[in-house]
Predict the structure.
Amino acid sequence: MRPADVQRLTVAECVDRYTDMVRAKTATGALAPGSAEVYARDVHTFADLAGPDHVLDDLDGADVDEVLLRFARKPDGRRAPERGGVPAGGAAPLQSAASQARFRRSVSAFFQHAALSGWVQLNPMLTVTVRPKQRGGLRAERRALTSEQAAGLVGAARELGTGQREQRRGRSDQRTELRDALIVLVLAAVGPRVSELTGANSEDFFVNAGTRYWRIFGKGGRTRDVPLPRPVAQVLDAYLEEGRPLLDRGLEPKALLLSWRGRRLARGDVQAVIDRVLARVEPDRRRSVTPHGLRHTTATHLLAAATDMDAVRRVLGHADLSTLGRYRDELPGELEAAMRIHPLLGRDDA
């Protein structure tokens, strides 16, 4: 039986009260104005999808499941259609995985407040069964590239950095092939944060006992010295000797990565570089990826190759091992390969 203090308010009435409360928090500094508007927008979207005239307390977990699924399939008018990813008919893209995760958090916060305010007897989020995989996020697609996709991207970068120099065209001060190759190779092989890469200076690279190292200045003021694989070190040396001098205007004398105007490369420029190199990959091995996706690729393939977990942690710059779980994607055929080479039973070549 419903308790006497539960208020039979419509979804629209509850959303309006919740929105007023959230916006009032900005006056006291308890909530940033931008965050308040995001919460307000999400709960109003929830009201539209759930039915503004329904009584909030009548909604159960199945109803919220349906709203989450409908939101996941809802076109996102704020995002321009992406190249290669435009839905049929040229419609706007669907909600991104990040937007779906944010929307779910907003709805959860709304129902927590509703339960405390006496608008619902039970919080329906406790019985929601839809999980991120079922509704297309939090990962709309795997972040790490497969072995074939990673090999295609790395191969294109190595070709760009070493095998095609004689074919370069255009003004010498706008040739960025070596720089672009270095960016992709470093991201794929070392997996730095994009801020660590764009913030790197030429003096951060040094040689010790014949091995090239990169001293990375990471989060929390922590530094780590990461050895560079020989193919990456070769492209780095070529860039420092041939590529960077062409771009140097003296505007950013210490910066490793320079734009053709001579300024330190910005975070947003890195994605454009990756896309240019991707365009050189065969279509059947090509898949769009972000700098953070290449960080996931590094972690996934190092761990799949049975690289020591603590070594991977140190390469990526994490404070503890537990964080690695977020940077690890499952590779196709990985479990089958592991069981064929079982440490207790020997190799199964049948």
Remarks:
- Residues 80-90 have pLDDT under 50 and may be disordered.
